[in-house]
Amino acid sequence: MSIYRNYDQAELDAQYDARGTVPDIQPILRQYAQGSAAARSTLPCELDVAYGKHADEALDIFPATVPNAPVLIFIHGGYWRLLSKNESSFMAPAFTSAGAMVVAINYSLAPAVTLDHIVDQTRRALAWVYRHIREYGGDPGRIHVCGSSAGAHLAGMLLAGTWADTYSVPHDVVCSATLLSGLFDLEPLIHTHVNSWMNMSVQDALRNSPMAHLPSTGCPLIISYGESETAEFMRQSDDFLGAWQARGFSGTYVPMPGTNHFDIVLSLNDPASPLTKAVFQQMGLITNNQEVAKS
Question: Quick one: which of 78, 90, 111, 281 has the most CB atoms within 10 Å?
Answer without folding.
Answer: 90
